[in-house]
Amino acid sequence: MGLFGKKDRQADGRKKPKERKPHLVRKSIGLVLAAGFLAVVLVLGSILGGSMGSLVTRLFGSPADAPSSQTVQETNGTARQAADQVEEEGAILLQNSDATLPLSPDVTRVNVFGWASVDWLGGGSGSGGVSSTEVGLLDALKSYGIETNEDLTKMYEDFHAAGQRPKTLASKPSESSVLYEPSISDRDYYTDGLLNGAKDFSDTAIVVLQRYSGESNDMPLEQYKVTTKDGDVQVDASRTSLDLSTEEEELLAYVGANYAHVIVVANAANAMSLGAVESTPGVDAVLWAGYTGQYSAEVLPKILWGEVNPSGRTADTFAYDFSTAPSYANASEHVGAYIGADGLYPADGTQMGNFSSPEPYTQVSYVDYAEGIYVGYKWYETADAEGFWSATSNEHGTGYEGVVQYPFGYGLSYTSFGWQVVDEPEQGSALGDKTSITVRVTNTGSVAGKDVVELYYSAPYTAGGIEKSAVVLGDYAKTGLLAPGESQDVTLSVDARSMAGYDAYDANGNGFTGYELDPGTYTLTLRHDAHTVDAADGATLSLTLFEGRQFATDEKTGETVSNKFTGDAAVDGVGVDGLGSGQDITYLTRADFAGSWPAVASSREMPQSVAALNLYSADRLAADDAREATMPATGAKNGLAIEENGVITDLGRELGASYDDPQWDSLLDQLTVSEMENMVANGYSGTSALPSVGRDYETRELDGPAQVGGFVPTNPGTGFPSATVLAQTWNRDLALRMGLICGEQASQRGLSGWYAPATNIHRSPFNGRNYEYYSEDPLLSGQTCGNVVAGARNAGVYCYVKHFICNDGEAGVYRDGIYTWMGEQALREEYLEPFRQVVEDFGGTALMSSYGRIGAVWAGGSEALLAGVLRGEWGFDGVVVTDYSDHPAYMNSDQALRHGGDLWMCMGGSLTTDSGSASYVSELRRATKDALFAYLDARVANESYVASTGDTAAARPASSAITTPVPLVLNVLRAVALALVGLAVWRLLVGIRLRRDKGSSPLSRLSNASLR
Fold first, then answer.
1. How far apart are CA 572 and CA 580, in angstroms?
2. CB 792, CB 740: distance < 8 Å
3. Which residues contact 239 (CB under 8 A, 6 or more apart)?
4. Coil, strand or helix: which one is 391?
5. In what order do the strands lie in the sheet with 520-527?
6. Closest CA relative to residue 770, chosen from 318, 234, 296, 380
């Protein structure tokens, strides 16, 4: 055969298979794709190597020195038991007519009425909630061996599916606060067969009442409800969200008329107006369950059937009508709007991001705490003492009895107790520095139970002088479980200093401003609640102060205490009472309650002095940076380290034991400016590593008050009943135990800090976040919170107690940038006091500032608050983080840093740097030291606690090292990408070689062959 035009054949004569030419385009595409994948991996590595990588570590990291799964499971089991104890002691028996409770063991079947029974709430919505509710009332009854009417349950489930409530951080109150309840007279739901079958099923009925609340939405002052399946939302403007709906009242009336035993179980955190429950015939008992956490509804049958004797007491006042409180005029959507404030933050185009669809702010808002110190029971008891209710007469009673249904500190028991005063000062003797009373509590009933003894004081009041409540809680004590006939002595004490009122205006004319005691008679009373004095001899004790006393310094720190927020002394430039800036605010006064009654908020002109402080300006920044300071050393090579491979060193222990240790200076000299800036400006969910001082790992810090890690539930701890339920236990030891166990769970998950607990005041029952706060009373709040903090510190975890200060409502939906006005007396006595207790009495080393303003200035940037009171008067040596900075122009990191703050809760943030400013670098150094001290203090406290108690279960892992799968995953991806690129290049080169060889003509191949 010739060389041209002939087909090649194999030796056997068959055609040779056709040789395909290499497909270079396809191979080129492969190389492009591989290179693109490599580029993506490199970009991803760059991103995760920066702030995003830090965020992943903080949210999803785990301790390198992790405890065994068995240890974690044992701690989780202990936590569940502790959570159950909180519910056992925090549930309140509000009503028990004819000793309906406990139910007889013969009662084994019950009808459970109310749609809320199929959508039980373990917590509120937002950062203080729980990740899931695993046990509801129906589950608990079933597990306890009680049969429930499944036909009723199925009807409710079909009426409206459970688990469909919108998150309050992504909805409006008109969406999140909707009540779902069909009318008992609507036969589309309550058919004759269903109702008759229910009566045949059991003569015992449980009715569930419920209210859903959460962050960013206050409880509305009108009612939103759905009464038909898939029906439209109806609005009842005649009732608030905390009143019973007409459907709930009709349901109660029906059940009360048709069942022998009727028990109401309330699954709510905000105090409710329950007058209709009390006045409905046939309703026998009311158990206030609160939000029960992840599992703790499981104890409710134990209470209902008497295995557990309820011992909870109210942490708030339950009024028949909440408009009787002076705070009502400035609560929920009763928010004022400034006139002429367009263009000021947040009415400057800023979007409200907490709705289902963002909307721009339409007003610059304010709220006046016009009620002053008269919050909760301090209002109701003082008004009663002044005869304010004398003309009241209604179906509930006359005077006070027609206004207040359940006083603060109220709760019933299945047994009875007698009190005997066994030791106290002599009647009429002089008031000393400290007064103690010992009470012998005896169980005079037939079943075991716990009792609460409450000590109140009444200070002398002169009309027009220092404002004073008629009664104030001074101390309290809870007994152990007392068997019938058993007694226990408890001692209650109150310091003279704690009875002092804060006189910001020299109202008594003695030339002094500050904390002081007026001369006169001080009366101490032992009470069962804020209104009910015990009848025992000595239960009322009168002591005499012959001369007034002034307290010019803080009793713990010795620092001078003086006005920081009033008049010319206002550090931030405008007084928090608003009076010096020309705002016409009338504050409630005991001298004339009727004439000073607060008007409902509306609108007023914004003064220029207030407008000038709307945002932190460049001029103010420059002025702050020009403050006199000595430029600190940075980047020194002193060879000091607080940790080695994540394990605390002896130096770290010494520094953690004392903020004033002189070795701090040499350590801090090693820090670089960039390290400090990175830490301060990127404080969301943790803090950055500081390699220059030996801390090579990020820290992890997560929410929330009822569940460690519950808000970003990557590996959450156990969900406890809400903070209000804990306060309702009136049990300091139990709060300490909860803090310790939550601290253990936090440390086992690699957390160093905990965004919790929260101790703002229940200023109004309409505050959407009351569920994550404790009480209307600052002592009960501070003691409960402080013990949680101390417990967590024992476990080696520092607590960012929030929100500092006055996040006592969500201002309807306007919490961002809200201007909050009040007198300095109310600020100190009511709102700062719980935080002071945490710092001075319980060793708190971390706080979180709030969204709102204190007067005209953002609380997180208030020099009066952070530098003046917190660090100055209270001697706070610790760290302050902002709340989440979703609007950084307002929640300004530079402002916070330069006025006493430390960390900016943001990621990828930056400061307005001037590394040449000695003031700026000094503040960076201070902030870094504050954060390091809190970190080391917790570890030292943990080691000390374990050594002194032998409680090794509370010991933190030795190493603080945090690991994430990110580096490993990135390395694998890089290796795969490089391998793919290499493979693609090799295939392309081979293809080019083959095409060159295969693509030449036969003649050229022959020519090439002849030349060889």
1. 13
2. yes
3. 222, 223, 245
4. coil
5. 472-478, 452-458, 520-527, 540-545
6. 318
Report pLDDT for 515. Answer: 98
Q: State the CB neighbour count (10 A cutoff) for residue 162.
A: 16
Looking up tokens 């069909």 gives 182
Q: What is the DSSP letter of 721?
A: P
Distances (CA, A) of 837 to 363, 759, 874: 36, 11, 10
Name the residue among 725, 739, 740, 650 with its Cα closest to residue 694: 650
Helix H or strand E segment including 135: none
Q: Which element (helix H / strand E) includes 15? A: none
pLDDT of residue 18: 57
- Nearest alpha-carbon partner for 887 in 363, 127, 361: 361
Q: Is the peptide bond before 757 cis (omega within 30 degrees of 0)?
A: yes
- Between CA 549 and CA 953 the distance in angstroms is 48
Closest alpha carbon to 775 in 725, 722, 724: 724
State how far the Cα of 264 lies from the Cα of 209, in Å rounded to an integer: 7
The runs of H, that is alpha helices, within 795-872 are: 824-826, 833-842, 863
Task: Note whether 26 and 992 are within 8 A (CB).
Answer: no
Through-space distance between the first and last CA atoms of the chain, rounded to whole angstroms: 23
The per-residue pLDDT for range 359-399, each reduced to its tens digit, is 999 999 999 999 999 999 999 999 999 999 999 999 999 99
Collapsing DSSP to helix, strand or coil, 458 comes out as strand
Residue 133: exposure state from Cβ atoms within 10 A (0-12, 13-18, ≥19): buried
Which range among 746-760, 802-816, 871-885 shows the weakest confidence by mean pLDDT?
802-816
Q: Is 949 exposed, middle or buried (0-12, 13-18, 19+ CB in 10 A)?
A: exposed
Structure tokens at 198: 């229910």
More confident call, 72 vs 985: 72
Task: List pLDDT tens digits, range 622-652.
Answer: 999 999 999 999 999 999 999 999 999 999 9
pTM over 0.90: yes
DSSP states of 267-284 = E-SS--B-HHHHHSTT--
Give the pLDDT score at 449. Answer: 98
Q: What is the pLDDT of residue 4?
A: 43
Q: Which amino acid appears at position 996 of this protein?
A: R
> How confident is the model over 131-168, as pLDDT tens digits?
999 999 999 999 999 999 999 999 999 999 999 999 99
Cis peptide before 346 (omega within 30 of 0): yes
DSSP secondary structure of 256-267: HHH-SEEEEEEE
Label residues 86-110 b or e (16+ Cβ within 10 Å = b).
bbbbbbbbbbbeeebbbbeeebeeb
How many beta carbons lie within 10 A of that of residue 725, not counting itself? 29
> How far apart are alpha carbons 361 and 818 in whole angstroms?
12
**pLDDT at residue 12, as a whole number:** 61
- The whole-number pLDDT of residue 633 equals 97
The pLDDT tens digits of the residues spanning 29-70 come to 877 887 788 788 777 666 666 667 788 888 888 898 899 999
Neighbours of 761 (CB within 10 A): 26
Give every CB contact of residue 306 below 8 A, 6+ residues apart in sequence.
Answer: 101, 102, 103, 414, 447
- Beta strand pairing status for 798-799 and 751-754? parallel
905-957 confidence digits (pLDDT tens): 998 888 987 778 999 999 999 999 999 999 999 999 999 999 999 999 999 99
Q: What is the mean pLDDT of residues 505-509?
A: 98
> CA torsion sign, 996 to 997 to 1002 to 1007?
positive
Which of 336, 334, 328 has its CA nearest to residue 375?
Answer: 328
CB 711 within 8 A of CB 704: yes
